[in-house]
Design goal:
This protein is α/β, with parallel strands linked by helices. About 40% of the residues lie in helices and about 20% in strands. The chain has a five-stranded parallel β-sheet with strand order 7-2-8-1-9, with helices on both faces. It has a four-stranded mixed β-sheet with strand order 3-6-4-5, sandwiched between helices. The chain has a two-stranded antiparallel ribbon with strand order 10-11. Bound molecules: D-malate (MLT).
Length: about 240
């Protein structure tokens, strides 16, 4: 398998993703939230590129069975039903509902990649399901949501975790296409640091701890907690 890893959507051009299999990663926290929401029975999640676009969409759909969910600076935006903490996405809140989600980096990265042939959302929470979906493919592109156009440790490490698990499952070495995949693979092969330690030492993780979201970290570090693979169909992320 030939793998490309973009550490930020800033390096993703239309032709980098069009027609390819793409996995978007935002471990802290949009990907983890989406996986949790679908596992809790949400009908689907519409990722939005902005709060305005999300609000317009919810006005169009009506608010009976649709939730407006958005985060800015990590916190729930006033007037929204939920923020971006996976712990908010309980069955009681989201089962049988459609979610429109606007986050600072993650949901925008998903929108940016929507010309992919297949767009999956990956996290530690659904690592095994992502690995199964990639088995047998010739090529995959990982897009890390990153942090305001820059690198984020947890997304790069999760890309590496997925690639290394693919190596273990298939017994074949992944062929890195470019420097990003090479670095991610090295991170993934290093088992001296657990996902939770890694999230706790990442700058985004430290900010979440300061902002009162420390309990989100063990949730987002829960490897294989859900057998859910979010896939984009007609602008909606649904269970594959
Ligand atoms: C993002 O999209 O930037 C993140 O998911 C932010 C967050 O942790 O809420």
């Amino acid at each position: 398998l030939r793998a490309t890893v973009h550490f930020s959507p800033a390096t993703v051009r239309e032709e980098s993703v069009r027609g390819r299999t793409v996995v978007v990663l935002d471990v802290l926290r949009a990907s983890s939230t989406i996986v949790t929401a679908l596992a809790a029975g949400a009908l689907g999640v519409i990722p939005s590129e902005s709060l305005e676009a999300a609000t317009e969409m919810v006005v169009k759909l009506g608010r009976d069975d649709t939730l407006l969910c958005a985060e800015r600076d990590g916190r729930r935006v006033d007037g929204c039903d939920l923020g971006n903490s996976p712990r908010e996405y309980t069955a009681e809140e989201v089962a049988d509902r459609l979610i429109v989600l606007a986050t600072t980096n993650g949901s925008r990265a998903m929108v940016r990649c929507r010309s992919a042939a297949r767009l999956y959302v990956g996290a530690y929470l659904n690592a095994g399901t992502v690995v199964s979906a990639l088995e047998g493919l010739d090529e995959v592109v990982f897009v890390c949501a990153g942090n305001d156009g820059g690198f984020s440790l947890e997304d790069a490490a999760c890309a590496g975790h997925l690639l290394h698990r693919l190596e273990e499952v298939t017994g074949e070495e992944v062929e890195p296409s470019g420097d990003g995949a090479w670095v991610a693979l090295r991170l993934g092969r290093d088992d001296s640091i657990t996902p939770l330690d890694l999230l706790q030492r990442s700058s985004h993780g430290r900010r979440l701890i300061t902002d009162g979201f420390a309990e989100d970290l063990p949730v987002c570090a829960g490897v294989d907690l859900h057998r859910v693979l979010p896939v984009l169909r007609d602008h909606v992320l649904v269970r594959s």
